[in-house]
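Team,

Forwarding the record for the chain on the shared tracking sheet. I've put the sequence and predicted structure together so nobody has to dig through attachments.
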Amino acid sequence: MTEVNEPRRRFLIGATSFVAGAGVVGAAIPFVQSWNPSAKAKAAGAPVKVNIGKLEPGAMVTVEWQGKPVWVIRRTIENVKNLAMEEHRDELRDPDSEVNQQPEYAKNEYRSIKEEYFVAVGICTHLGCVPNYEPDGRAELRHALFFCPCHGSKFDLAGRVFKGVPAPTNLIIPPHQYLENNVLEIGSDATTR
């Protein structure tokens, strides 16, 4: 019968346990790190800053926020007047924005903080197409609008949907705020900080 070398046995058990434990930790680290969002994913949901200082009246700039196009439009004086016209309101499905698709500070006839600037997610509420900005309007209307080429939905320059089109609701107004007079931040506001 052979004698068991007890110190050697303890050393081999300890060394094997240490190597196995290190292997488990080494395999677990990438797995646990995969639970955290990537830098790209974090950036996709982060607020976006837009300098609107050089945006001319009637012009539009599109930025990406959360993987969606967001429009920033500087409305002309005529655009602002047309939004307030009572006869224009009669053409709209939800002129008072009763369906909650905008922050509280944008629940007005302009659906914006400043009536001169309009900020909206540029996706039709019907089936997700991107409407075209038509600053000169269409033949049947006297004012600028957004026209969805997929199924013909129309939205005014406050993102309110017209009656008789497939889109069921107004365009979505994202959270936004003015950091300075010419710097707009999309994706955060005083209520989200």
